[in-house]
Design the sequence.
């Protein structure tokens, strides 16, 4: 059981999907219960990972491997370290909650809807678990199709435009990434005489700088579109605004993290020389800073509630990429924690927009006002979500942003100064949004009799609220989980980082002495 | 030259002889079959295919048992090797699928006549020789046998203006391209004094060693290449394809796009890899340019199509471009890539066209994209199957189409054709756009009143086979890759 725990977590959703296809179309309750049950089982199965994960072990854990396509050297290898563990837990939690939140929001073509969600869930989990580049690519692409349908079928008025835009953007990025993968794959053959996609094998290579450069930027396109970094962000507002609530939650909560995860897992460790190259660092850092400030300024201007939250994602993800490119333990750990935080707080914000939309069927901020008078529970939860997103101490957002700023400050005070302005602007647009929607007298008569949240809706929000407080008040377990994996990446890029600064090296024996030969792979592609 | 027909010759020719016999048999027995029972002809054709498959299997096991890489028959005119056998299997599968989807369609079109099945078998006879012949005259007769059968089949709907027009266009352009081929072949004969490919190859190599831009060789190269590009519908010689695909009976479109393309590629690979291999430096940029152009025009023109058959025609043009890229890289990965691509393409393209066949019912022609509106809400199984085929055509994993493209990209990277690789991958996104127009219509648009699927057991079997293989090759490709590997290792070297 324990040996295959990851596979079980990975395939529960898709197994549930296959069974779902045999349920009668007419019995809507059965379909809903089944989909929720499957997602819940997936969540329950993933939770033990938190305890079973050995924090003192820097290697990948729960590794499963078997041959898949021997003639090209592609294997089924999955495993997790601290970074993927957190993202997997985020995925199972957000996945379950977004399905639960669809209970009354979606009434049309239910069977397809839940089938796509379950397929999407496996795709996302696969991305975070794969330790083989081929497998990673397959999952990366698999997840595109269900998301296309979720936006395109159950979305808003411009759903088709948004769906195909999302699809094509991501596809362009990922096919270029594929070329990068193939270049590494072929280079491994030139160096060791075997073909393999295994990440740990590819890491043994010494890659010439020019090749690193090309591969890095090929990966960059793929990941930056997914994050999305400025100026590749234009698909995001469309996709977020048009997607159904649960789609937006998954999109913001999990899908965007695939991009940042790609940087952390692949770009940095595989291509360390180009990653620390001055030009690369500058480009990525400044694109991140532009995203932080630009995203915040655009959010400030939005009249559409959902679009505001969408652009705030651009800003928040800017923090994540800034933390990554700081290339130090604080920046990287802060970035991963901020990815989790963004999943929690933006997930909550989208759910909150969705709850209001279900009641009023509009997202214009000016249509609302004074909601706190009629919806007290709602206003409390909204306040928590908003403050968590704005980076209020004792809530999760603060922890992530503060750590990232520490990391950024270590590299450049200018970066930190600009990034701080993003926090200020973030507080501004969020507080102003809250003020316009929740406070004051009720000006629009349609808002007078809005129902407050029911038990199911509270149950959707509650886990996220609790999680936000947990990270905000006691983030230590998260930093513990991240310490070793982050140190591994830092030492891969800057081997002398800890020694030069007189810090305690969490991984004194890493990297292992050189001189090993390739152990895996096949002779012919 | 004294000529004797040995048992080996018979063994080598057996599949073609069987196909011919059964084709003629259908023509005769058709006289005794009533108009309503023409489906018997399909059964006869399937029996013939069964025997052919057995003969091919015998050849395969014979080669394996005796450890031979090839078996030469008819004094060197025909060679059975892994390459030919691999293609023969594709032809058998494609023909069998074409036969089983045809009955219902022809009944609806009210053109259910026996010679249809005979022509399909005759076309396959030509294909068998295209994949196995190693001599210029045999190759030329083979390509004409196949093409002539197709000219008739494309115009099989006598009452339909589009079908007649398509047949004429296809005939005229096809005849023109055959003329060019014959011209190129005659120059080959002129410089080598032989029609055997191996002897032509050494003559070309001798000349090319003196001067890689030898004008005579160059002329032969260009005329042959143009003729071949016509056959595989590479741009700028693709004009016949959209018209022929649109006008032909859809079942024949499916057959034409899969089997004829596979056979033409077998032909093209033989010519480029054997007699022209020594002048690779000359033709590599040429083929590269044609491949790039083919992908560009195929993909861009497909975007604006409103007719599914035309759209799939342009998409199949672009697929030919991808396959040509495998030839450009020219290494073993590239060759394997072409083989895998053709195999994969056979299933996914046949599946997609079979669905268009099923869309043809009494009331609607069903070849407009809009005719598929709301297919998901009316017949979800068919919509999901079409989704699988389209995803595969677009090259999205885990469907088989991805694997074909994967090998092509890999071979380009290996041979350092980075620019071609970048173009090739970016066109994947363009292609996804127009395939997803169909997806969108099926899944999002409101259903039409008269939408109906006219399925028959044959269509269901064909769809199931295509879908199963499209997914299987995508998810667990190992046995198929082994097969492609074996078929090509010995061949063409």
Sequence:
């Amino acid at each position: 059981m324990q040996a295959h725990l990851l596979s079980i977590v990975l395939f529960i959703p898709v197994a549930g999907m296959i069974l779902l296809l045999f349920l009668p179309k007419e019995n809507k309750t059965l379909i809903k219960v089944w989909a929720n049950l499957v997602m819940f089982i997936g969540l329950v199965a993933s939770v033990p990972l938190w305890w079973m994960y050995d924090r003192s072990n820097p290697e990948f854990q729960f590794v499963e491997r078997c041959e898949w396509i021997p003639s090209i050297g592609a294997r089924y290898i999955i495993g997790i370290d601290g970074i993927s563990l957190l993202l997997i837990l985020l995925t199972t939690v957000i996945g379950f909650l977004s399905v639960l939140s669809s209970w009354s929001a979606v009434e049309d073509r239910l069977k397809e809807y839940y089938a796509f969600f379950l397929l999407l869930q496996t795709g996302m989990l696969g991305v975070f678990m794969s330790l083989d580049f081929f497998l990673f690519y397959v999952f990366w692409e698999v997840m595109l199709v269900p998301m296309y349908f979720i936006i395109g079928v159950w979305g808003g008025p411009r759903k088709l435009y948004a769906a195909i835009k999302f699809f094509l953007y991501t596809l362009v990025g990922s096919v270029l990434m594929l070329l990068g993968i193939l270049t590494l794959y072929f280079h491994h053959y030139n160096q060791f005489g075997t073909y393999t996609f295994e990440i740990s094998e590819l890491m043994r290579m010494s890659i010439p700088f020019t090749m690193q450069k090309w591969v890095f930027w090929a990966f960059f396109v793929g990941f930056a579109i997914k994050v999305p970094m400025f100026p590749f962000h234009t698909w995001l507002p469309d996709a977020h605004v048009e997607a159904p609530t649960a789609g937006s939650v998954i999109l913001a909560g999990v899908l965007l993290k695939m991009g940042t995860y790609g940087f952390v897992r692949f770009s940095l460790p595989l291509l360390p020389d180009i990653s620390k190259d001055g030009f690369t660092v500058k480009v990525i850092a400044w694109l991140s800073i532009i995203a932080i400030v630009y995203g915040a300024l655009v959010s400030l201007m939005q009249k559409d509630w959902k679009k505001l939250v969408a652009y705030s994602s651009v800003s928040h993800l800017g923090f994540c990429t800034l933390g990554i490119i700081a290339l130090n333990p604080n920046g990287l750990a802060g970035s991963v924690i901020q990815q989790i935080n963004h999943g929690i707080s933006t997930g909550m914000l989208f759910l909150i927009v969705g709850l209001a939309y279900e009641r009023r069927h509009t997202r214009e901020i000016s249509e609302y006002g004074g909601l706190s008078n009629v919806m007290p529970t709602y206003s409390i939860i909204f306040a928590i979500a908003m403050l968590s997103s704005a980076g209020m101490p004792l809530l999760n957002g603060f922890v992530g942003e503060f750590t990232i700023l520490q990391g950024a400050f270590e590299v450049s005070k200018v970066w930190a100064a600009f990034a701080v302005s993003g926090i200020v602007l973030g507080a501004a647009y969020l507080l102003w949004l809250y003020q316009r929607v929740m406070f004051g007298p009720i000006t629009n008569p349609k808002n007078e009799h809005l129902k407050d949240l029911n038990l199911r809706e509270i149950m959707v929000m509650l886990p996220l609220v609790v999680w936000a407080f947990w990270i905000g008040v006691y983030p230590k377990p998260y930093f513990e989980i991240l310490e070793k994996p982050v140190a591994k990446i830092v030492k891969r890029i800057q081997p002398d980082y800890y020694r030069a600064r007189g810090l305690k090296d969490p991984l004194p024996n890493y990297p292992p002495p050189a001189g090993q030969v390739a152990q895996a792979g096949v002779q012919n592609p | 030259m004294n000529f004797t027909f040995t048992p080996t010759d018979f063994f080598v020719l057996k599949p073609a002889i069987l196909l011919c016999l059964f084709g003629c048999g259908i023509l005769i027995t058709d006289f005794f079959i009533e108009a309503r029972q023409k489906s018997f002809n399909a059964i006869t054709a399937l029996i013939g295919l069964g025997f052919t498959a057995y003969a091919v299997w015998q050849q395969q096991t014979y080669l394996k048992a005796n450890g031979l890489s090839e078996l030469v028959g008819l004094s060197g005119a025909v060679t059975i090797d892994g390459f030919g056998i691999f293609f023969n299997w594709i032809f058998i599968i494609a023909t069998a699928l074409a036969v089983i989807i045809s009955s219902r369609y022809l009944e609806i079109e009210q053109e259910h006549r026996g010679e249809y099945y005979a022509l399909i078998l005759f076309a396959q006879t030509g294909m068998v020789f295209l994949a196995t012949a190693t001599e210029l005259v045999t190759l030329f007769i083979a390509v004409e046998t196949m093409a002539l059968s197709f000219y008739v089949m494309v115009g099989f709907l006598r009452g339909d203006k589009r079908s007649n027009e398509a047949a004429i266009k296809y005939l005229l352009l096809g005849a023109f391209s055959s003329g060019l081929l014959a011209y190129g072949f005659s120059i080959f004969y002129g410089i080598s004094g032989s029609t055997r490919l191996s002897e032509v190859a050494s003559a070309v190599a001798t000349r090319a060693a003196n001067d890689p831009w030898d004008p005579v060789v160059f002329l032969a190269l260009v005329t042959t290449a143009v003729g071949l590009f016509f056959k595989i519908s590479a741009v700028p010689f693709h004009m016949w394809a959209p018209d022929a695909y649109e006008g032909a009976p859809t079942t024949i479109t499916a057959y034409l796009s899969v089997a004829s393309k596979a056979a033409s590629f077998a032909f093209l690979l033989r010519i480029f890899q054997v007699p022209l291999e020594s002048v690779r430096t000359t033709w590599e940029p040429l083929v590269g340019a044609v491949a790039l152009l083919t992908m560009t025009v195929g993909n861009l023109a497909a975007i604006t199509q409103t007719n599914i058959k035309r759209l799939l025609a342009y998409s199949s043009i672009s697929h030919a471009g991808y396959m040509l890229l495998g030839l450009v890289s020219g290494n073993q990965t590239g060759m394997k890539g072409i083989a895998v691509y053709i195999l994969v393409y056979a299933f996914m393209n046949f599946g997609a066209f079979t669905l268009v066949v099923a869309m043809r019912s009494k009331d609607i022609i069903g070849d407009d994209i809009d005719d598929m509106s709301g297919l998901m809400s009316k017949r979800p199984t068919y919509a999901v199957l079409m989704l699988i085929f389209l995803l595969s055509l677009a090259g999205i994993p885990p469907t088989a189409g991805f694997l074909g493209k994967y090998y092509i990209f890999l071979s380009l990277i290996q041979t350092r054709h980075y620019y071609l690789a970048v173009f090739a991958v970016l066109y994947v996104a363009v292609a996804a756009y127009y395939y997803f127009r169909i997806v969108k219509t099926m899944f999002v648009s409101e259903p039409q009143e008269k939408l109906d699927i006219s399925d028959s057991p044959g269509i269901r079997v064909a769809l199931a086979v295509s879908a199963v293989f499209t997914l299987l090759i995508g998810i667990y490709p190992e046995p198929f890759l082994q097969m492609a590997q074996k078929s090509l290792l010995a061949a063409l070297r």
About this structure: Chain A touches chain B at residues 68-72, 109, 112, 137-138, 141-142, 144-145, 148-149, 152-153, 159-160, 164, 167-168, 171-172, 175-176, 178-179, 182-183, 185-186, 524-525 (CB under 8 Å). Chain A is about 70% helix and 5% strand.
